[in-house]
Amino acid sequence: MKKHYIMVLLLSFWFAATPVLAQEDSPQTGDLEVKLQVRPRAEFRNGAFTLRAPDQDPAFFITNRARVSAYYGTDRLNLGFSGQNYSVYGSTPQIETEGTFMLNEAWAELLASSWAFRIGRQQLTYDGDRILGTLDWHQSGRWHDALLTKYRGEHLKLDVALAWNQNQENQFGIAYDPGTGQPYKAMQMVRLENKFSEKVDLSAIFLNLGFQRFDDNSNPISGMNNFQTVGLNLVYTPRDWMVKLIGYYQFGDDAGGISSDAYFGSLRLDYMPSDSRWSFLAGVDYVSGNEATIVDNPGEGDALLTYDVADQNAFNPLYGTHHIYYGLMDYFFVTPDSYGKLGLFDKYFGVAFKASSKFSLDVAVHHFNGGAKILDSTGDDDGNYLGTEVDLSFKYVIMKDVVMTGGYQQMFADDNMQLLKNKPEAEDTQNVVWLMVNINPTIFKRKMN
């Protein structure tokens, strides 16, 4: 365990030794800005998150985000407040007596030269939302109640986040139930980023999560399970290209107290010629997993997967925005039951066409394998191909502050996907259709001094 902390300290000293020449631009001062957002989205789900069985009907519904945000800044103080209502059309009565309006942002930030200290409810987003992200696709979004310290130099950036969660004001004790609040009891994060040139940017992150311990009867006991993630993120942007290379390693004890030894690797190439309406991307993501075995299910008569979890080799991508990486049908790492122990090996490519300043089209294809082996009942390798997903989407700018997006996605699932999702004899056609309008104007902006 000590060698992991030594590695983090060495990275910290290396970044700290990089010269800092100047500050970033200071935030605009004296501004008061108010924004409104109304974002309805209609979805037809015929196999989202998991496969649809023959005895299940497709779903169709409309959700909406109604959000109001206000931000104020001076040369020493910034404030941010944002409240919202998330709803499904028809889920509340015409005469509603219980309010559902809540705060998704409520923070204050003190500024001192190159430093900033922000406390309160806020979004944490880093490195393309891989393990910490805003989850903006979800109508509710994601936030953390935390203290965030930031340093900004000309080339160097430092972020330190601390969080401590409780369910209520206690008279005694610090036991915590994650079922009714944040998933972790405590959090500490350190992230360093250095821009070596206009083309090369490198960041390193260390994240520790403290989870409440429970006994065999699910009663809280003293102490925490500490779960660590360390990683590097390299971005190289020569001319019309962008190359991203990411690696993470997880160790410590997860929320269930199981020792973890897991890793993640990603390589992505984007080609965006400046004189063309076309752009292209291709990449691979590898999420380590636990070896699985196909066994008969005596109660149901159908086979299922069991996992070797003596050691946890399944990487947990935590609180990132997984919707934008592992297919728009959200089969992996989105819902609690999609955090499969098998891991994932995702090979993908995409093409985008910008027809005009108002209209663009995107096509992406994902080829999914498990991140670990699937063995048959005799112990032989049975192959781990899961399926192929095709994602089609468009974007149309109706007018200033009003944007329409939509898409069609289809999953071509293998038998192994049925085993993974415990959906034997699933329907052949698994697809999703959606249409969303984002109305997000700034209704008030004024200099207050």
UniProtKB/TrEMBL annotation:
Q: Keyword annotations for this protein? A: Signal
Q: Where is the signal peptide?
A: 1-22
Name the chain's protein: Alginate export domain-containing protein
Q: What is the lineage of its organism?
A: Bacteria, Pseudomonadati, Bacteroidota, Cytophagia, Cytophagales
